[in-house]
Design a protein that fits this description.
- The structure is a single chain.
- The chain is α+β, with helices and mostly antiparallel strands and 312 residues long.
- The chain folds into two domains: 4-147 and 303-310, Aminopeptidase (3-Layer(aba) Sandwich); 169-277, Gcn5-related N-acetyltransferase (GNAT) (Aminopeptidase, 3-Layer(aba) Sandwich).
- Helix content is 33%, strand content 29%.
- The chain is built from nine helices and 13 strands.
- Strands 1, 2, 3, 4, 5, 6, 7, 8, 9, 10, 11, 12 and 13 form a 13-stranded mixed β-sheet that branches.
- Strand 5 (112-113) and strand 6 form a beta hairpin.
- The longest helix has 17 residues, at 15-31.
- It is globular.
């Protein structure tokens, strides 16, 4: 209990808190030997500049809490996206008691309604994190067999070139004139069974490209023979930590099974090396994604999914 007495919880307030939180995530990431035991800066930027500004998830002021010392040092942060809670704890302060306190806050403030009208909260626990798993189990969370595979690769060797089908060109994302084509590729890749009626255009790419870590040279596309975009991969690079996250990877269905997904990722990795990047991460949520990331990144461990229904 000694460490908890040093930390006091308060709600997230303003932009100044965002930048403090951003520095805190980088500090924790480095203290954890550059392993994604919690969120990193690229994921925070993606949340603020894409998920909040474009997708419409709830703003940070509504879903984020900070734990800090009397002197203002951050010891832990908590936020949610939809019904998923994300906790970042400084190793200096990490105890079972603190995790109980944080999850109690999450259960009180963050659980969303599931389709049956029940309040529910989801949390990830790394398979090699007995403390988190013990806390969740003792709080009545249930394990579900839907893991997230956390892939990574150290860029300490040559990244092989991937041969692509004739007529395809691997290149950087273009300027604003290409927003619509890029957004269409994303729509077809992630909504293969839906009509174009739900397509809203490419306005959201301006939000994405305004994020601090966005680099056009790491936003790679595969141009099809007809000039359209067939596949894409965006890598977010934190040059302070010399690590990156691969987010937004997809291939238009009619262009699948041509090696384009692997080609756009590996091109991004070679460019990342030239910028000084030494490690890259990606999360796989589905068998196709895990097959792709496994073929390029190679090393992974599982983050288990736990949930709790809160019927009050």
């Amino acid at each position: 209990m000694g460490q908890i007495s040093k930390l006091r919880m308060r709600p997230f307030k303003d932009d100044a808190d965002f930048w403090r939180m951003r520095d805190f995530l980088r500090e924790v990431f480095l203290l954890n030997n550059r392993l994604e035991r919690s969120w990193s800066v690229p994921r925070l930027d993606y949340w603020r500049w894409h998920l909040i500004q474009t997708v419409g998830t709830r703003p940070m002021e509504q879903v984020t809490f900070l734990w800090e010392t009397p002197a203002g040092q951050l010891g832990a942060t908590l936020h949610t996206i939809d019904s998923e809670a994300y906790l970042v704890v400084h190793p200096q302060f990490r105890t079972g008691d603190l995790e109980h306190e944080v999850f109690a806050c999450a259960e009180q403030n963050m659980a969303a309604l599931n389709p049956a009208g029940e309040r529910i909260l989801f949390v990830l626990a790394d398979e090699d994190d007995p403390l988190r798993r013990e806390v969740l189990s003792s709080r009545g969370y249930t394990f579900r067999d839907q893991p997230v595979f956390r892939w990574r690769r150290d860029l300490d060797g040559a990244v092989p070139h991937v041969k692509v089908a004739p007529g395809y060109l691997i290149r950087s994302m273009g300027d604003a004139s290409e927003y619509r084509a890029r957004a269409l590729a994303s729509w077809y890749a992630f909504h293969p069974d839906e009509s174009d009626d739900g397509f809203e255009g490419g306005y959201w790419l301006a939000n994405l490209q305004s994020a601090p870590l966005y680099r056009r040279e790491l936003d790679i596309v595969a141009q099809a023979p007809n000039g359209g975009i067939a596949a894409f991969s965006t890598i977010w690079y934190d040059d302070v930590a010399r690590s990156a996250v691969c987010v937004l990877v997809g291939t238009v269905p009619e262009h699948q099974r041509l090696g384009l997904g692997k080609a756009v990722i590996t091109e991004g990795l070679r460019r990342l090396q030239k910028l000084g990047g030494t490690r890259v991460f990606a999360n796989g949520f589905s068998p196709p994604a895990n097959a792709l990331y496994g073929s390029v990144l190679g090393t992974s461990y599982r983050a288990e999914s736990w949930f709790k229904e809160l019927n009050y």
